[in-house]
Write a structure and sequence with these properties.
72% helix
Length: 356
């Protein structure tokens, strides 16, 4: 009972730090140019759909439609307009154990260990802390990834019901849910497809992979077919970017500052020191695990790293490169979340093995 109370108290402590860091960073920093630009275009739904969004790279409705009524009643209020991002961060924090359990890798006790590690890193991540209440679509990418993973596992669950048909009603609801996530942000498609690939390739490959997953594959294909016109329409603005994809990498100091937020965001320096220490610890842990094979879940860790961390970054880079747009850390900062979860799963495998 005491251990349970300790777990609850520490969870509440982390939750308090999450709220404190997000709110103080928002309070300490004025709206910056991109936020001001987004707010200035929150005029009407008609204007967003037919004029503004088609003129920007991969502009989709989600974040803008959500902020439109809020800005009508609280114009330019950085706290109210940042509230959806803060709420989404709270949901991410609460849903981390559920997400880890969906991987079907760890036991109940190991899931607690992995969740603790992922939550600590998520709370202290300086970039995600800043983006949480930023009045930009990036603020909702972590919760979008969480929802994508949960929806993917729901769709794949129908593949396991070999003797049960996927009813038309269920197919329709699943397709609508998928398209809703993709409309929320164009990266929703990247998250979803790569997460789907991870789960169907998580176990050993089978010659009958299509037969085993034809139900989920059908849902994905229908969703892609229906979403294609939206993708084409929203990609109009990408053709007029003509920016240097590598601009922010030509100056190493600028690249580091852009990645960890030092030097231009107030109220975040102390967080960077804690975060840097965590990253160093994790790098040492990963190197030790790879060379000693000290974790039961090393292979699963590497698969998560490949499909849910590295491949999304590479995909976003290719999208930026082909559309001549800046390649910025803020675009893929959300991959830190599956990375933290992967490290948590890796470490939980250490503990299990040491207790054997």
């Amino acid at each position: 009972m005491k251990r349970k109370n300790l777990e609850v108290m520490f969870t509440l402590f982390l939750l308090g730090i999450l709220l404190y860091t997000r709110l103080t960073i928002r309070a300490s920093n004025p709206l910056w140019i991109d936020e001001i630009n987004e707010i200035s275009h929150l005029k009407s739904l008609h204007y967003l759909i037919y004029e503004y969004l088609p003129s920007i790279p991969s502009g989709v409705l989600g974040h803008y439609v959500m902020l439109l009524p809020l800005n009508t009643f609280f114009p330019g209020n950085k706290f109210i307009l940042g509230l959806p991002g803060l709420i989404s961060n709270l949901l991410v924090f609460l849903l981390i154990p559920t997400v880890i359990s969906r991987f079907n890798i760890t036991s109940k006790n190991e899931t607690k260990i992995a969740s603790l590690i992922a939550r600590v890193c998520f709370v202290f991540d300086p970039r995600l802390a800043f983006q949480s209440m930023e009045i930009r679509p990036y603020s909702l990418l972590p919760i979008l990834w969480i929802l994508s993973l949960m929806l993917v596992t729901k769709i794949i669950s129908y593949d396991d019901e070999h003797n049960k048909c996927l009813k038309n009603k269920n197919t329709f609801l699943l397709v609508m849910a998928v398209i809703f996530l993709w409309i929320w942000h164009i990266y929703g498609l990247v998250m979803f497809i790569l997460t789907y690939l991870f789960f169907i390739l998580k176990t050993k490959l089978s010659k009958n992979i299509i037969n085993l997953h034809y139900k989920s594959f059908m849902v994905i294909c229908i969703s892609l077919f229906l979403f294609l016109p939206i993708w084409i329409y929203s990609a109009k603005g990408s053709a007029i970017s003509h920016l240097d994809t590598f601009e922010f990498f030509k100056n190493s100091t600028q690249a580091v500052n852009a990645a960890i937020n030092q030097g231009y965001i107030k109220g975040i320096t102390w967080q960077n020191y804690i975060y840097f220490s965590l990253i160093v610890f994790f790098l040492i842990t990963i190197i030790w695990a790879v060379f000693t094979k000290g974790s039961l879940y090393l292979s699963q860790f590497l698969k998560i790293l490949a499909f849910l961390v590295l491949m999304p970054v590479l995909t976003i880079f290719l999208l930026d490169f082909t559309s001549e747009y800046w390649f910025l850390y803020r675009q893929f900062a959300w991959v830190a979340l599956p990375f933290y979860i992967a490290v948590g799963i890796l470490v939980s495998g250490f503990r299990f093995k040491m207790l054997e």
